[in-house]
């Protein structure tokens, strides 16, 4: 190779490195600017009354979370949904329950993205496990996200609203799904994001959320994993069984409760928000916000999923996600 060609090649490499460094700097600065311009340092609390337009302007449009107190104090569920009442009303109903060995459903386990064993059991049998009346290996969690309240437990729908009127008016649509959640304290929802505007209503107990805004995406690692499912053997132990003929799943391997900062040093730049949502409180969790969820033992919640608008904000997020995935560590 001639000296001229060598110099030309070195020049191209230097130019490419300079461009890559510039993109990385933009990705580092972008979340910092978002925090300075509009994001709150904590999750604010508010109370009704407020108009649908006001809520849209203050929270949905800016894509900011908040906790709303006394938003559903008129629901009969708040006073009725105890184990005794649930046994009486839906005890014999067969529902779908997620069972895992460690409480982590839909989460990374070593080199696999492992989904729970979906077990059909009566509601009373689930309560027996949650209340400690029977011993069972594994962690049990009602978490099926296909409007399981209306599909599996319609007897309970009269104790809550079919939708949240001011949210439905603000968005001009009804919710896509209304989900019922009940589980053990060991059940954990690993960090992920949803394409929904989410109103999460805690009926009993409390939920502990770790939240990160979409603008922190450059600091959040993603990897691709072979999907698998847990299968419990007759001796009580669990196997991890690969899902055949399936594409790899992109998922977040980092656990925000104990982040491996040596393996994922960019996460040092993230600024997670911690919020506890208590019984009678509602969390507005905006679309595309990353969240990790824990709960008190036996906590019951209902959430409403409204489909997000696939507008310019979604396009912006997709651009940031594509760039973050392309440039590697910052």
TrEMBL record:
Q: Which InterPro entries match?
A: Cupin_8 (IPR041667), JmjC_dom (IPR003347), RmlC-like_jellyroll (IPR014710)
For this protein, what is any one GO molecular function term?
A: peptidyl-lysine 3-dioxygenase activity
| Keywords recorded for this protein, A-Z | Cytoplasm, Disulfide bond, Hydrolase, Iron, Metal-binding, Nucleus, Oxidoreductase
| Pfam families from the UniProt entry | Cupin_8
List each copy of the JmjC domain by range. Answer: 142-321
Enumerate the SMART domains for this protein. JmjC
GO cellular component terms, alphabetically, are: cytoplasm; nucleus
> Record's superkingdom?
Eukaryota
What EC number(s) are associated with this protein in UniProt? 1.14.11.63
What is this protein's function per UniProt?
A: Bifunctional enzyme that acts both as an endopeptidase and 2-oxoglutarate-dependent monooxygenase. Endopeptidase that cleaves histones N-terminal tails at the carboxyl side of methylated arginine or lysine residues, to generate 'tailless nucleosomes', which may trigger transcription elongation. Preferentially recognizes and cleaves monomethylated and dimethylated arginine residues of histones H2, H3 and H4. After initial cleavage, continues to digest histones tails via its aminopeptidase activity. Additionally, may play a role in protein biosynthesis by modifying the translation machinery.
This one is known as Bifunctional peptidase and (3S)-lysyl hydroxylase JMJD7
Q: What is the lineage of its organism?
A: Eukaryota, Metazoa, Chordata, Craniata, Vertebrata
């Amino acid at each position: 190779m001639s000296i001229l060609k060598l110099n030309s090649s070195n020049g191209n490499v230097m130019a490419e490195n300079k461009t890559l460094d510039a993109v990385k700097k933009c990705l580092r600065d972008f979340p910092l600017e978002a925090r300075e311009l509009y994001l709150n340092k904590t999750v604010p609390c508010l109370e009704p009354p407020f108009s649908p337009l006001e809520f849209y302007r203050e929270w949905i449009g800016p894509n900011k979370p908040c906790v709303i107190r006394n938003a559903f104090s008129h629901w009969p569920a708040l006073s009725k949904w105890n184990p005794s009442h649930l046994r009486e009303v839906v005890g014999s109903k067969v529902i779908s329950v997620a069972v895992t060995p460690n409480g982590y459903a839909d989460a990374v386990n070593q080199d696999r993205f492992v989904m729970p064993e979906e077990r059909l059991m009566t509601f009373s049998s689930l309560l027996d496990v949650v209340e400690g009346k029977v011993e069972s290996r594994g962690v049990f969690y009602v978490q099926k996200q296909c409007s399981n309240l209306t599909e599996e437990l319609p007897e309970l729908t009269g104790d809550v609203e079919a939708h949240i009127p001011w949210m439905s008016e603000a968005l001009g649509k009804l919710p896509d799904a209304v989900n019922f959640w009940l589980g053990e304290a060991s059940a954990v929802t690993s960090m992920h994001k949803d394409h929904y505007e989410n109103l999460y209503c805690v009926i009993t107990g409390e939920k502990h959320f770790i939240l990160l805004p979409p603008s922190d995406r450059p600091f959040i690692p993603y990897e691709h994993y072979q999907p698998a499912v847990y299968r419990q053997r007759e001796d009580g132990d669990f196997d991890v069984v690969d899902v055949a003929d399936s594409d790899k799943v992109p998922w977040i391997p980092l656990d925000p409760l104990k982040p491996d900062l040596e393996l994922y040093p960019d996460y040092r730049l993230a600024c997670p928000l911690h919020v506890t949502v208590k019984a009678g409180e509602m969390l507005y969790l905006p679309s595309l916000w990353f969240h990790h969820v824990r709960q008190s033992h036996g906590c019951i919640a209902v959430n409403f999923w409204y489909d997000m608008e696939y507008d310019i904000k979604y396009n912006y997020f997709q651009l940031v996600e594509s760039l973050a995935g392309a440039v590697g560590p910052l």
